[in-house]
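Worked example

This section walks through a single chain of length 152. The input is the sequence exactly as stored; nothing has been trimmed or padded.
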Amino acid sequence: MADAEAGRRMMRLETLSEDLMIRLRQACPSQRRIAALAACAYAVEYAQVHDSAVLSVLGELNSARGVAASAIEKVKTLLEQADKQYFDLHDASDSSEDIGCLAAFSRARALSAMLFVVEEESLRSSSEAIYEAVSAVDDASAITLRVVSALV
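Given that input, the structure is written out below as tokens.
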């Protein structure tokens, strides 16, 4: 039911790439999950999120094991901290291109992508994970390449 509903309304990913959204809609759930995980892993690497809980969650997702609730809570806490840091730096900065501000934004978006990947697989969770991952990086083509490769 969630996928049927998601298929009828516009997703944020469509604002970035209609082609990716079409490919996601045509993919099977396991392909979507692999694509979302690939996007997330790249975003985490790009944003230099080196927290052991995050790396542990990525490892668990890659091995298809369940992710411990405590690890998910740790990622949520890290996301809240990164979001707060971003907003604090943004408010204090004269420039929207402040390096620290952009780094905090990238970390927050990468962590948000991860939280969508750990949700039960659906078109919505996969598309949101990919959207957040794309938002974390400077060059969307690196994520697009990984997503398209996973959907083949």
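What to look for: Residues 13-150 form one domain.
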